[in-house]
Amino acid sequence: MTQCSRGGRGGPGEPEDGNAPSTGRMVTTALIVTGNMVGAGILALPVNLGPSGFLPAVMGALAMWAIMTTTGLIIARQPFLEENENADLPTFFQAVLGPCGKWLSVAANLVILYGLLTAYLAGVASVAAGSFGLGIPEWGWLLLYFCAATLLASFGSGVLRRSNALLMTVMWLLFGALLVLVVPHFRRADLAAGDLTFFVSGLPILVTAFNFHNVVPTMCRTLNHDRKAVARAIWLGSGIGAFMTLLWTVAVMVTLPMESADGVSIIHAFQAGVPATVPLNQLIRSPLFVDASIGFAVVAMTTSYMATGVALTAFLKDVTGERVRSRTAIWLLTFLPPVGIGALYPDIFLKALNVVGGFGVGTLFGILPGVLLVRQGAPGSRTRRLGWLLVGVFACVLLVELAQETGMLQISPDVEYWSAHRFH
């Protein structure tokens, strides 16, 4: 397989000593991956995947993390990104897969980036509106958050990398506080209970939860295309993100009932399209937990919002090329559509994440990397077999989301089943 590397005196594929990134730079870059992962997905996953049961949710999350990290490494190890410093994903896929690859990547990336920015705005707005009794509508919270988060995202990748470590530290502290506060509310549950049919419907959100790939070109540039540093940053960053996501998913699933008469449950949150922190606030009823949950949601989504905003800005510059030179025009194209859609449809949080995973992430960071391996691998080789496996997995995710959006597949939580498997 070709490698993302910086050629030097030591031979092809070995970085020059002067260009080798420091450990601190590698770690801060890895935290961008974590920040990009731990956003809306960590708040949505317990709600969207919870009704499938404890074991399906945990095992499915672990498998998807491994698959998504693999596709991220496939993209990072392509020499084109080193040879073309200013290129982003559309130019990359055009070079390696032709014009069809470019325009398919453009369409999928627009779905991903605009969908994620919209989900982050709607997610914070729903958390704030559901936690504060100030009479401010969701669209009002959305606009307030948009102004603050977009200001941070507008400063570019340099500020993102330098501020991300601080934001991640704050997020970890708030995350730890949430876990401490929910532990007294843990309940016994039937961990063997599961609904594999519903698990199928949660595949798109599972893909979204482990997506970080849009920052890969920026990572390669930041780390001087040092293949070892890039690989370490991806494994470290995605590993931290996966650990936090799994820990939070488990904590929510052993705290909230799957179904309850008062509506404070995972299934009711799924039906209402709200993050897991909303029913947890209703269950725990602690001012400290409310503050910590809001802070965690805001910081988690802000780190992802900043990374996604930077990625979309670079993406639009790459797509428009010389046709649009105005920075203001690029800024407006980046941030106005998400805030407009979010203000018009404030309950779009979970819906947006499903569309992003099923149509966008699955195509751009699943199917296309698989096609890449099929084309690069020799007939019968392990590389080509892995490529076909990735194409098959993500084609299934795409078909599931397409069937759900068109009404051909309608899967709902099995309330009757979970009523018989309540917490003790």
Automatic annotation (TrEMBL):
<feature type="transmembrane region" description="Helical">
    <location>
        <begin position="192"/>
        <end position="212"/>
    </location>
</feature>
<keyword id="KW-0029">Amino-acid transport</keyword>
<dbReference type="Pfam" id="PF03222">
    <property type="entry name" value="Trp_Tyr_perm"/>
</dbReference>
<feature type="transmembrane region" description="Helical">
    <location>
        <begin position="352"/>
        <end position="374"/>
    </location>
</feature>
<feature type="transmembrane region" description="Helical">
    <location>
        <begin position="166"/>
        <end position="186"/>
    </location>
</feature>
<feature type="transmembrane region" description="Helical">
    <location>
        <begin position="139"/>
        <end position="159"/>
    </location>
</feature>
<dbReference type="GO" id="GO:0003333">
    <property type="term" value="P:amino acid transmembrane transport"/>
</dbReference>
<dbReference type="GO" id="GO:0015173">
    <property type="term" value="F:aromatic amino acid transmembrane transporter activity"/>
</dbReference>
<feature type="transmembrane region" description="Helical">
    <location>
        <begin position="233"/>
        <end position="256"/>
    </location>
</feature>
<dbReference type="GO" id="GO:0005886">
    <property type="term" value="C:plasma membrane"/>
</dbReference>
<keyword id="KW-0813">Transport</keyword>
<feature type="transmembrane region" description="Helical">
    <location>
        <begin position="386"/>
        <end position="403"/>
    </location>
</feature>
<feature type="transmembrane region" description="Helical">
    <location>
        <begin position="111"/>
        <end position="133"/>
    </location>
</feature>
<feature type="transmembrane region" description="Helical">
    <location>
        <begin position="328"/>
        <end position="346"/>
    </location>
</feature>
<feature type="transmembrane region" description="Helical">
    <location>
        <begin position="27"/>
        <end position="47"/>
    </location>
</feature>
<keyword id="KW-0997">Cell inner membrane</keyword>
<dbReference type="InterPro" id="IPR013059">
    <property type="entry name" value="Trp_tyr_transpt"/>
</dbReference>
<dbReference type="InterPro" id="IPR018227">
    <property type="entry name" value="Amino_acid_transport_2"/>
</dbReference>
<keyword id="KW-0812">Transmembrane</keyword>
<feature type="region of interest" description="Disordered">
    <location>
        <begin position="1"/>
        <end position="23"/>
    </location>
</feature>
<keyword id="KW-1133">Transmembrane helix</keyword>
<protein>
    <submittedName>
        <fullName>Tyrosine-specific transport protein</fullName>
    </submittedName>
</protein>
<feature type="transmembrane region" description="Helical">
    <location>
        <begin position="53"/>
        <end position="76"/>
    </location>
</feature>
<keyword id="KW-1003">Cell membrane</keyword>
<keyword id="KW-0472">Membrane</keyword>
<feature type="transmembrane region" description="Helical">
    <location>
        <begin position="294"/>
        <end position="316"/>
    </location>
</feature>
